[in-house]
Amino acid sequence: MSNAIVTNIQGYSIHDGPGIRTVVFLKGCPLRCKWCANPENLEASVQIGFLSNLCTGCGRCKKVCPHDAILSDGARRIDREKCRRCGTCAEACYYGALVRYGEDRSSEEVFEKVRRDKIFYESSGGGVTVSGGEPLTHAQFVAELFELCRQDGINTCVETCGCVPGAAMELVAPLTDTFYFDLKIMDPQLHRKYTGVDNAQILENARFLAGKGANILFRQPIIPSVNNTEENVRATAEFIKSLGREDLAIQLMPYHRMGTAKYAALDMTYELEELKIMSAAEIDALEALYKKLGVQCTVSR
Known about the structure:
Layout: E1 3-13, E2 21-26, E3 47-50, H1 60-64, H2 88-92, E4 98-101, E5 103-106, H3 107-114, H4 118-124, E6 127-131, H5 139-151, E7 155-160, H6 166-172, E8 178-182, H7 188-195, H8 200-211, E9 216-222, H9 230-242, E10 249-254, H10 260-265, H11 280-292, E11 296-299
Parallel strand pairs: 2-6, 6-7, 7-8, 8-9, 9-10, 10-11
Antiparallel strand pairs: 1-2, 1-5, 3-4
Helix pairs in contact: 3-5, 5-6
């Protein structure tokens, strides 16, 4: 059985696939989207975060750290150069101020945990979703997990940015009931500017899945001043229609700032600090434009 670093197994989710779902979050992502709401899942390895608002200054973490990586004061608590990410400090913290992001888990271990919620899947048409990060950077792990799910009659869903080798898609596609597939920015240069890579592989994988008849819901995070333009909507709509399937649709995901505290916890800089939330009317206008262009569109609320 393959292993992956899992940051969270979140039950009773209703926004990550059909029905009530359990979402498995895996670490590691090839993109560096400036608006990412899950920065703890970007690196593939375990990380330690510090939530300063929960710290009481008791000093237990400093006493137990075997690498002298705990700083005495200030907003930063972890010396990142000394820290070996062992998690000893997090285990000693009574108040949850120190958090270990990631645990090494086998696909079988994860399956045994998610199958406990099977009663909710059966009553709602739900199942198991893998997310991240980019879960298909662990394609073998996902394939093994989904094979176990399939044997047990559990529905499967992948949330993907699409930026993985084609072989990863080929491995997982036969075992996946639904793909939630991001189309962030259609212009390749702008895509590189805001995510770190161009979108050639992403579009290739979208064409592959569409050609295989996979059940796909495209999704688009709507980022003000980045991709909320008529030009990007028209280009996205044109691409979706070029796939030659009338059942394909897109769901808009309005920008939010709910992940910003985790940047501070990891001593990372959030580059979109000045960005403002779009109004409901602005989002509705983009939804209407997609529909006018002949693409089914909904908004994640």
